[in-house]
Amino acid sequence: MSTSENGSANDSAHHSDYEPQAWEPPRWNVLNDAAHLINRGPQVPSQPEDILAALDRYEQQFLPHQSKSLSGIAVRSCLLGIVFALSLSLSLVLLWTGHPLWRPPFFLATLSTFHFLEFYTTAYANSNAATTGSFLLSANGSAYSMAHSAFFFEPLISYFLVPFLLPPPIQTTLLVLGLSLIIIGQLTRALAMLTAGSNFSHIVRHTKARSHRLVTSGIYSVLRHPSYFGYFWWAVGTQLVCGNRVFLVAYPLALFRFFDRRIRGEEELLVRFFGEEYVAYRARTWVGIPGIR
């Protein structure tokens, strides 16, 4: 998954989870356009059409099919809410009746919560970066969608074709462990995004921004890539709760390969950007994903 964590989990790194981006002049919006027009001074009087053009450019981004489309945000939030409510209700009914197929709808409820919180946390921590893509519904590509579809269908296939029941005490232990990992993973990822604040972005950047600094406080004082840590263990937790056997092994291995490559690449850039400061920071923190130092 690309969390930039995206991110995300899939994230771009501010210090560790967001690769610093090249400095660019701030995007024009209605406020800095107005300031620009005022600062030109009396020799170049502001024209009403200039102000109207600035307002038009600012408002365009909120129209349908644009990056910050209000209708697009509303539709995505509504659909995720409907999926969450229906899936959780069905899961609780099946669980109450003792039916083992409560797990697939519970996974859908968990997944819809994850995608909603990706947008909500981005909007809360870094409003300027929040777009319809911040939900990460399609930003991670077809492989991501296919994987989550497989997670949903494995318990169904297992139930109808190759049923396998563990002793109740083991089932309960794995379920509690899975739920705990989902909660810990989700909270850690959200905390990472909130701590990064305005430096958070789901888009990977490959050059250092002039305003970037190395964040080493809060959750980052322990974990170098907390959003990756959060997504990895969230994903493991979902497989435990679903009772999946194939993807309980396959998905963590796939995530390990993905995050191992991603973290190596990011940290090469971060050493170049921050030098010995990052080397020292890396030496006293950990990643928290098995096999990745």
Describe the structure.
The protein is mostly helical and 293 residues long. It is 60% helix and 0% strand. The chain contains 9 helices and no strands. The protein has helices spanning 30-39, 48-60, 70-96, 103-125, 141-160, 168-196, 226-242, 246-274, 276-283. The two termini are 20 Å apart.
Tally of individual helices: 9
Terminal residue distance: 20 Å
Shape: flat
Helix content: 55-70%
Instruction: State the major sheet.
Output: none
Structural class: mainly alpha
Order of helices and strands: HHHHHHHHH
- The total of beta strands comes to 0
Strand content: under 5%
Radius of gyration: 22 Å
On the 0 to 100 scale, the average pLDDT is: 84
Question: What are the low-pLDDT stretches, counting only 5+ consecutive residues below 50?
Answer: 2-31
Strand-helix topology:
Blueprint: H1 30-39, H2 48-60, H3 70-96, H4 103-125, H5 141-160, H6 168-196, H7 226-242, H8 246-274, H9 276-283
